[in-house]
Amino acid sequence: MNHKYxxxxxxxxxxxxxxxxLICAALILTSTAGTHAAAIEARSGSREDIQAAIxxxxxxxxxxxxxxxxxFRGGPIDIRKNITITGSGSKGTTIKKQSPMDFIFNVFTExxxxxxxxxxxxxxxxxxxxxxxxxxxxxxDNSTFKNFETRAVMTHGTVKGLVDNNRFEENAGYDVVxxxxxxxxxxxxxxxxxxxxxYIEDNLFTHRTARNSHSIAxxxxxxxxxxxxxxxxxxxxxxxxxxxxxxxxxRGSRSYEIYGNKxxxxxxxxGAFIRGGTGVIYDNEFNxxxxxxxxxxxxxxxxxxxxxxxxxxxxxxxxxxxxKVNGNEVVPFIHDRGRSREHIQHNxxxxxxxxxxxSAFTYPHPMRxxxxxxxxxxxxxxxxxxxxxFGFFKFW
Length: 396
Hints:
By secondary structure, the protein is mainly beta. The protein has seven helices and 31 strands.
């Protein structure tokens, strides 16, 4: 017989489609330095079938969601193991949300998680992927997130990893939100230029019809790097690049590195709105119409009576240089609300000169290159892609 099914909702692929499935699996499996033990193909892209395949997959395994467009109904899929989830490409696998609120994937594992080669469509409902952990390395890549009402991708806690080569299209609310681990983050030293951050690189963000607050937002001790992204904003985004401060939502943003980005706008009130923390902002291009391309502010300066200097979690040691708006140098604007101008001063709290002690982290992010260790790995892994493919025939 060409088909074999068990009582769960995942399947062993029919013989005629094995090669395609195996090649897809091998692409993912070889990309993770040989750590993934097996691949399971979900029977469909329904919530029940994806969850069944995840439950059946071993630690460090891969779940393949087949080609097609699938309605997603019910609550989120909870992931509590190290796993890779892949579709069959930007035109091949689409999961369309049919339930309000919450996320499609809730990731709680404290090891590794990857989501790749898939389209998640919020259909004007809820969120896409939430990563909430006290010790997670992750990669979300080569996918499309569109039409979400709240947050397309959101992190919480001690989470490090990479969001790269994705398309974010017409998401209301926020595209990517980075939340840290609050007080614990503020008790650790800042480590700019290291992997101790959530990296968002080489993504495209578009907002032509949906009102959007931020393409990148952060708070609660967050640490993020936003680099080499393009934001095509139309006139829908209030301020595409954001770092919140200490007011109402826990501790402020801890650190941010924002560089090499292009922000195109029909009109935005702000290009970037920085309200706390420390970091570097350089080599960004703002094209189009902005009331202010870069605004610095401190929430507590106007929300807390008699707030003294330095205010908790306020902007400090921030370096800004070589940013352009329509070819001209960007001059940071300080909101004159409450005591903002007393608390945020040039050459004390922020500087418009290069930080000579700063070096950017490796680009592309090493997680992208280590996902291609199939050729030699210094002589330790010569099995290669086709060796993996043929090896999987034994599994099937």
